[in-house]
Amino acid sequence: MTLNNMWWSGAICQGFLLLICLLVYVEAVPVAIDKTKINPPEEQKEKEKGNPDTGLYYDRYLREVIDVLETDQHFREKLQNTDMEDIKAGKLAKELDFVSHNVRTRLDEMKRQEVNRLRSLIKAKQDVETGKGLAVDHESLLKQFEYLNHGNPHSFEIEDLNKLITTATSDLENFDKEHHDEFKRYELMKEHERREYLKALDEEKRKAEEQHYEEMKKKHADHPKVNHPGSQDQLKEVWEETDGLDPLDFDPKTFFKLHDTNGDDFLDEQELEALFTKELEKMYDPKNEEDDMVEMEEERIRMREHVMNEVDVNKDRLVSLEEFLVSTGKREFLEPDSWETLEQAPAFTEEEMKEFEQHLAEQEHDLKNKADNLNKQREELERQQEQLNAQKLELQKAVEHMDKLKTQKEHPPPGTNEEQAHDGGHPIERNQPLSTSHHEEQTKPHQ
User: Fold this and answer.
1) What's the mean pLDDT in 260-289?
2) What gap in Å lies between CA 325 and CA 327, rounded to an integer?
3) What is the spatial distance between Cα 293 and Cα 37, in angstroms, rounded to a whole number?
4) CA quadruple 25, 26, 31, 32: dihedral positive or negative?
5) What pTM was computed for the model?
């Protein structure tokens, strides 16, 4: 399977992508070198080119299912007449009963491999968290993965395809929202840290820092006019500067074909984002102190969302040639309103900033209490350890004393017991000379 034919080709492309409404990013080679993105090494680019990231944690399994279903002729034919609502209602999943035996066998094996993969991951996590050797309830833990039918871990059934479609659709619908929420938290934290830094400065340094901050804001805002994303002016600029064509010869259909880089007759989200590179380069340069690359990515997503909302009529996350041509006849395309950039549309209000700082203060208070409690526990443990050490020392001394007494009892000094038997049990010193009278009495001959 070639790179450009990885997804549904030709007339079946729309049907397949409607099937899953899954992939946020389908393969797309950038129209021009995007200076706003860091270029990975050549080997990495070649590896990633055929496998763009959807942002879904089960991405590999999803793609394998898609590739296998693509090989079945019956399934492809059904896709051509299936709309989004029927897919969400599960009508397309029922067609799984009619796919070839070879396809079903491959899907069964893929599911078994995925279940085993998840079990291995769960087991590894449990080993780290609870210690090796403990039993793990895999079936219970696997239930958190909603895209699989865990009641039947051996074969791929209609319910599996339904779960995969439902889960992926839901995840992709929330994907951008979660990104916006993360960006908002990023901006709030950045401003909070700036304000905290200012509080630590004296009056003179604070004024200098505030002045520098305002200068950076003005410098960032001082850029060429940003065209409304998806407007005639914006696309003509791409036509001229990227494609190297005469703006007077601008033709929407030709433009579409030029930027449908994978040749599937659709502009997917990645291909759309490539069209905004020139606009983003007007506002952001990674070499400039005043330009925040996190904000640039948020701006890119905002532009793509706007165009999709305006042009993607059937909400399949793709722009067909027909949808594109219809949009070029609208007022928004010919005479668009000015585009409100991020610096003109702040990510948060002052009220939200106050709530955020209050939340941080509460978190800090909770962490301080936990730290205090942990310190108290540590001090108590140290006190108990000292007591245990003292008891251990006393026990060691007692054991040593008892060992000494035991040794003396088992091995008394030589002759001690024999000498104590004389003189009423009082010991007599060795080599003590006898008294003279006693000696004479003993040596005097008997008469």
Assistant:
1) 92
2) 5
3) 9
4) positive
5) 0.56
